[in-house]
Amino acid sequence: MALSNQSLDLLERGVSEVIEHRSLEAKLGRRKPLRIKFGIDATGYQLHLGHVVPLRKLRAWQEAGHQAVLIIGDYTAQVGDPSGRDKSRSSLSAEQTKKFATSYLEQAGHVIDIHKTEVHYNSEWFNRFTAADFLRLMTSVGANQLLTHETFRRRLDKGLPLGLHELMYPLLQGYDSVMVKADVELGGMDQKFSLLTGRDVQTAYGQDKQDVMLFDYLLGTDGKEKMSKSIGNIIAVEDSAVDMFGKTMSIPDKLLLDYFTLATDTDTNTLTTIRAELKKKTTNPRDIKIRLAKAIVELYHGSQAATEAGFEFAHVFQKKGQPTSMEVVEVRPGEHSILNLLVSHHLAGTRSEARRLVEQGGVKIDQRKITDWEQPVVAINGAVLQVGKRKFVRLSVRS
Q: Which of 79, 116, 123 shows the shortest CA–CA distance to 98?
């Protein structure tokens, strides 16, 4: 049976690999709703566009009439996904992951229809696990198979520590698939081992194997590394419209098509046109990037906010003006350490980051560049403190 255009789009757009392709095609051909699983560990407060890639595919399955199943890993976040890491993640408490999970779910609602989504926290079942339950789970996959995981093998080859709890992580993620009876699981290419392990765990528990749909990760705004909060190259779901627009305008031209494909609802025909424009260089890439920025902002803030963000970007970055509105921060009179000023008002995460920003010439007060981080600055009422290209605050000196 020939697949519909919608089914082909589900299988192909932004997809790097499907395991097993024939099996999934057959499931689609039966025209029965499938259970599509996506899980994300609650390890912080922010979702970014890299997280959104599989979430957007989950929404596409949802719109095609299938059951979206979202698992918030509040339990597995306490273990920590070891994939791609040379050392164990820092442990998180149950209280921390609960807060993060609430934030993640709220932000996921910007992408998928939460009201039509089956949502689970995997503490629902793991908090009830007994020693016998863990022993049974550990028998579902052999140690020799687990040790073929690229991350585990690399750690052992380098003589680096490898915790037993980390070996358990793929099994825990696989058990999530058992509990929700997943037909398909979505994830990034770096999750391939865990998603495939889920197939074996399902078999051990007497279930049919889920098919797996994998996606390449979205490079961050630096164009070099996977989008990551720790690197600072993210576009966050909850960024303001102006910040989201400005960050999008900073991505390298070579990523434009990837961002249109993975981060927007741009239709296939338009994607083909954009590909041709970029290849033949018939359109200035800056103009294509403006279209991309507006498309992304519109998804999270609406069309009016996207238009206004475009005007603001032109005013601030192209005409070297200042934002039409900015946050006002209250400071005491007199002299201040510029490092303390930046950190206390969340314009830099740490003093070392603030120092680096000053040394790189990224800090200005009323257009005057601050060059010496050791030199105190005097707070002037109404002065504009600028950090980088996108952060502006107006100082209000307490009387």
A: 123
What architecture is domain 5-215? 3-Layer(aba) Sandwich (3.40)
Tokens of 372: 């010496």
Do 137 and 175 touch, CB atoms closer than 8 A? Answer: yes
For 105-150, what is each residue's pLDDT tens digit? 889 999 999 999 999 999 999 999 999 999 999 999 888 888 788 8
Contact 220, 231 (CB under 8 A): yes
Output the six-digit token pair for 25: 């095609």
Cα separation, 320 vs 314, in Å, equals 8
CA distance 109 to 273: 31
When pLDDT is cut at 50, 70 and 90, the band that residue 86 belongs to is: low
The model scores a pTM over 0.70? yes
CATH class in words for 327-397: alpha beta
Q: State which amino acid sits at residue 170.
A: P
- Evaluate the CA torsion angle 361, 250, 111, 40 in order and state its sign: negative
